[in-house]
Amino acid sequence: MLRSKPVCALLFALLLSTGCATLHHSPTPPLMATTAIEAGMPRELSKTVMPEYVIEPPDILTIEALQLLPKPPYRLRTGDQVFLEVTNIDPEYPPISENFIIQLGGSIDLGPRYGTVPVANLTIEEAEQAIREFFLRQNWRASVTMSLIQMAGMQQIAGQHLVGPDGKVNLGVYGTVSVVGLTLPQAREKIESHLSEYLEEPEIALDMFAFNSKVYYVVTEGAGMGDNIIRMPFMGNETVLDAMSNIGGMSALSSKHIWIARPTPYSDEIQILPIDWVAITRQGSTMTNYQVLPGDRIFIAENKLVALDTNMGKLFSPVERMMGFSMLTLGTLRNFSGSVLSGRGIGERSF
């Protein structure tokens, strides 16, 4: 117990002699963002318009079919929807005039009275003739008219499409199309060109459903307890204040020392934009409320006092455990020794 006090005193002296930098090293932003660079940066009241959006994985596109007509001769397939009108059949039943979906197996179900007619892999004209022959076998000279309402392939074209890791969208039976690196007009033209191999002068409307490929990051230094990184989708109009509100503001671990680390393509230069948090929030200043751009890192430095307290705890926690274990061991030995001595004394008196 007496030896542990000099050890603790020695550790504390070493701690004071090395300073706080030994406990924790907090990064300081390099001063490479000149006044001229900062002056030209878009801010809350002088935002810039983003360039035309370029598609990348994992964006999600929405395709709307405006005109998708099959190239003749089109052969019916399972899932196609047709309009069928049949007259001059059983007078006890009304004429058939409704839409039908070609079912699994390639047949049209005309109901319990008539049954099913196989039409898969037939053209519209061939399907009409097959239905006439079907009723003729029942001694009815039916008049049959059929038209294609919707192709099964259209259901795979229209809707939401994820841009895969390979940069392609999947159009079902019509294959895949690479759209990575293209703008929306370019992607629409390429998809229509691809569909023209199967369809007659296809026309689609293309739009973005989810902007997933453009993001920025909010990094909160953890004051010795691990940094926290939040990946935020880039919407094109947010500022630093918007980004901070999206994460609920700063935590108790954070200081008011904040900056933006902005990547510079094709250069090793580090671009740092210091942020005056007090001016933005308390004074309504817009000078450092910069517009966030894709790839930005908004870094929130830690509170030095909290970091010091955390690292002091990390340093002395093993020592405290060792001292506690030593005290427990000594206490156990003392109790055991006292029990043994007490037992001997009782034995001697009884003897």
What's the gist of this structure?
The protein is of the alpha+beta class and 351 residues long. The chain contains 9 helices and 15 strands. The strands form 5 sheets. Strands 12-11-15-13-14 form a 5-stranded mixed sheet. A 3-stranded antiparallel sheet has the order 7-1-10.
Write a concise keyword list for the protein shown above.
351 residues; alpha+beta; Outer membrane lipoprotein wza fold like; wza like fold; 3 domains; 5-stranded mixed β-sheet; 3-stranded antiparallel β-sheet; 9 helices; 15 strands; disordered N terminus
Give the topology, please.
Layout: H1 4-18, H2 20-23, H3 35-39, E1 60-70, E2 81-87, E3 96-101, E4 107-109, E5 116-118, H4 124-136, E6 143-150, H5 152-157, E7 159-162, E8 168-170, E9 176-178, H6 184-195, E10 199-210, E11 215-220, E12 228-233, H7 240-246, E13 254-262, E14 271-276, H8 277-282, E15 297-302, H9 304-350
Parallel strand pairs: 11-15
Antiparallel strand pairs: 1-7, 1-10, 2-3, 2-6, 4-5, 8-9, 11-12, 13-14, 13-15
N-to-C SSE series?
A: HHHEEEEEHEHEEEHEEEHEEHEH
What is the CATH fold-level name of the largest domain? Outer membrane lipoprotein wza fold like
Distance between the termini: 38 Å
Helix content: 25-40%
> How many β-strand stretches?
15
Question: Please, what is the CATH homologous superfamily of the largest domain?
Answer: Outer membrane lipoprotein wza domain like
> Structural class given helices, strands, pairing?
alpha+beta
CATH class of the largest domain: Alpha Beta
Identify the quaternary structure here: single chain
- Count the domains: 3
| Strand order within the widest beta sheet | 12-11-15-13-14
Gyration radius over CA: 38 Å
Unreliable segments (pLDDT under 50, ≥5 consecutive)? Answer: 1-5, 13-26, 31-36
Beta-strand portion reads 25-35%
State the helix count. Answer: 9
Shape: elongated
CATH architecture of the largest domain: Roll
Average pLDDT for all residues: 82
- Largest sheet composition: 5 strands, mixed
